[in-house]
Specification:
The chain is globular. The protein contains nine helices and seven strands. With 254 residues, it is of the alpha+beta class. Helices cover 44% and strands 15% of the residues.
Length: 254
């Protein structure tokens, strides 16, 4: 009897262990969800943007000839800081008479191009925060800096030789901002501090007082015959009086 009881207990124990193992094997671990990847930043091809807008062909030619376009493209898409670029239109270069860019060395041209860039992305709204804070270092480094002023919502930039404004946005999506300006930025570090004075604006023409109303030819013509008739009548009356007086004196003489 004891042996039978022992065998039944052993059998039950073996069956319960088998059921436990089966339940453990049947459980499927819940998959661990990984966080969604952050969206990739917008890629901006500076060469393509400047080729279709503007026209900015002259400035793009300088960027390519000095290899600055490669530096700017790398800064735009390979760094966290991003890039801000100011691009003058072809007409800005055409109107640039003095100083001339034709006598600049390759290194000076390179610094001139870098002077038109900031090693950080700024939106149009960000420039208002830069207004009045002092010189902002450009991509050229050193003393190549720009000053920004917010004048009634329009952002003005000064660089010693140049005083211009941001006239429109070519591209403004982080991490790249490209903005059109009206003039070429000329740094004092290249062109010196002997800046010619800005010509004074031409004085406004003085307002002349309106001339007194003169009788028109038609008026004179209208008045002419009437005045002549009045003068002739007066002469006839005077002549009659003279004759009458002469006759009376003649009669009194007898």
């Amino acid at each position: 009897m004891k042996n039978i009881t022992f065998m039944l207990a052993t059998t039950l124990l073996i069956l319960s262990c088998s059921l436990c193992n089966a339940q453990k094997k049947g459980k499927v671990a819940a998959p661990i969800s990984s966080p969604a990847p952050a969206p990739a930043p917008h890629y901006a091809n500076i060469t393509e943007l400047l080729s279709v807008a503007g026209p900015f062909h002259t400035f793009l030619d300088y960027l390519q000839s000095t290899k600055v376009i490669e530096t700017l493209q790398s800064q735009a898409n390979d760094t966290e800081e991003g890039l801000t670029l100011f691009v003058p239109k072809d007409s800005a270069f055409a109107s640039l008479k003095k100083p001339s860019l034709s006598n600049l060395t390759q290194e000076q041209l390179k610094n001139l191009c870098l002077f038109h860039a900031l090693p950080h992305y700024y939106s149009l709204a960000d420039f208002k925060n830069l207004s009045g804070v002092g010189p902002v270092p450009s991509f050229a480094g050193g003393d190549y800096s720009l000053n920004f002023t917010d004048k009634m919502g329009t952002i003005h930039m000064t660089s010693g030789w140049s005083d211009t404004k941001i006239s429109s946005s070519v591209w403004s999506t982080a991490p790249v901002g490209i903005y059109q300006i009206d003039k070429v930025l000329l740094p004092e570090e290249i062109f010196g501090t002997d800046i010619p004075p800005t010509p004074a604006p031409a004085p406004a023409p003085e307002a002349t007082a309106p001339a007194a109303d003169a009788p028109s030819a038609d008026t004179k013509a209208d008045r002419g015959p009437s005045a002549s008739k009045d003068s002739s009548a007066s002469c006839r009356v005077l002549a009659s009086l003279v004759l009458a007086l002469s006759g009376m004196m003649f009669l009194l003489s007898f």
